Batch of 2 targets.
Target 1
Amino acid sequence: MSDLIALACALPKAELHLHIEGSLEPELAFELAAKHGVTLPYADVEALRAAYDFNDLQSFLDLYYAGAGVLRDADDFHALTRAYLQRAAADHLRHVEIFFDPQTHTERGVPMEDIIGGIRRALLEAEAEHGITFRLIMSFLRHLSEADAIATLEAAKPFLHRIDGVGLDSSENGHPPSKFERVFALCREYGLPVVAHAGEEGPPAYIWEALDILQARRIDHGVRCSEDPKLVERLRAEQIPLTVCPLSNVKLKVYPDLAEHNLKGLLHGGLVITINSDDPAYFGGYVNDNFIACIKALDLSETDIVQLARNSFTASWLDDAAKARLLAEIDAVHAQWQTAQ
Ligand code: HPA
Ligand SMILES: [Zn+2]
């Protein structure tokens, strides 16, 4: 098993489901709080980390939005993103497609320009330093109104050349994708590809809506598709990727135990399954940690691991030439690993 873990860690991979605000480690949260003269309601880093014990998605989101309150200027967003990309480089990530939640920050008076500018500066640095390519996805908060999402899209208009796609996140139940039909139609008119969180806590019907109403090209989470065989068949036939986040699903009690997770079954069923970290600072690990936990709990094979790494690139928004290059890199690292066995 340790050999398979070494293979998974060494393979070039992409991360396609990462909320940059969810990469805020307690150490940086305290550093930024001190910088801005803000008092966090926790004595120290250990006390904050100890609070990361969630019952469901909402109990996590309450802490996640509170934590994001320390992000106030472009340098904060730069420091946050830079720290994530250092972890990404260590995990052999070669490409990242990351979400940011502008509404969490603009409603506190942080200018859109500072949010995007700070994140992008770190992305460009990591591209130069580590060769990590990127896409930036603006995500709408589904617990807020569609009018609020439309206003956010309008506010982002001067920066649309810096935004590669749009997503939908936050509290799922009671906020179906259909609530956002018009804003996503506008996004598509602007040429922005769409992804959406669906079927994490919400029912399979929300995945159908994300596909049919929002015209999502990828589903974030999507694990509840298993409850609807027709939906699973569609995801397989149309090769619509699912960005699965195993440690997140256990932390938020979507699954009581990783051993019960359906990702291996879906992968063997021919779906384009990818492994991602979601909110790594809160859920106990980055991409390699997710691979390691899955190898241990689900007894993933060598073939499974290589397929998951390949899927991370095929499901990405990279162009075909870049995908081909990265898939060849996977083959090279895999061959090297086989020789060493
Ligand atoms: O896992 C998630 N689900 C929904 N919204 C989120 N915002 C950050 N992480 C998540
Ligand atoms: Zn997510």
Target 2
Amino acid sequence: MADLPLQVRDLVRTFPGGAGLHGIDLDVAPGSVHALVGLNGAGKTTLMKAVLGMLRPTSGTVRVFGADAAAARWDAVGHVVAGAATYAELTLRSNLLAAARWHGLAGARAGDAVDRLLDELDLARYARVRTSRLSDGNRQRLALAGALVHDPALVVLDEPTNTLDPSGVVLLRETLLRRVAVGAAVLVSSHHLDEVARIADRITVINRGRVVGALDPRGLDIEREFFAIVHDDDQRASR
Ligand SMILES: Nc1ncnc2c1ncn2[C@@H]1O[C@H](COP(=O)(O)OP(=O)(O)OP(=O)(O)O)[C@@H](O)[C@H]1O
């Protein structure tokens, strides 16, 4: 059987004071969206950083296409976690070209990929604008474009819609679903349960650094279900 794009087993990462991750198991299959939801401080960003090799696990394993962080095919991964790495003085297009080259695209392939992403995320009109002058939402669109420009097989996005306007939310949804339809795997976190339910195949609830339940994306009242799961877990913890 082919290696999963992402497999996390018994992942522990503790911070002084006891916060962090306390034994997370998680899979992301090809051609699917796996969403993480949880309250502020639940551990979503920490999990994504550990998945991407930005944080060393205290124990447990992360496998990206079957390999650990040292050997993983990072050129097949695109991410926006903990802010975008952009050059403030470069234009939006130059930044996107830099992201394409950094991900291994060269020459005309890089230029074509950049133009496609400018179109997909409706950024062409800002292509010549210096990045320091972009609005927060357009800077986020640039970050997302940079994460997707090389058509990664695994996409990891931490709260990607936070600064997006409604049209950005729709464009991101469409571009992710197009990629998923041709086999990409997506791990995404969000506080917007309705939005998550529109794109996710699986929704995992994280609380206090643990997986505490799952939501059915087709469920009728996933908000109520979410709060019930979190409340039950908090009750258990306080006993
Ligand atoms: N470098 C650090 N040192 C100490 N504690 C940390 C550190 N990074 C995160 N934490 C703690 O780990 C817990 C999980 O934080 P994390 O940022 O992963 O949560 P989150 O689910 O992404 O929250 P949010 O929805 O607010 O973005 C929190 O209690 C946080 O304070």
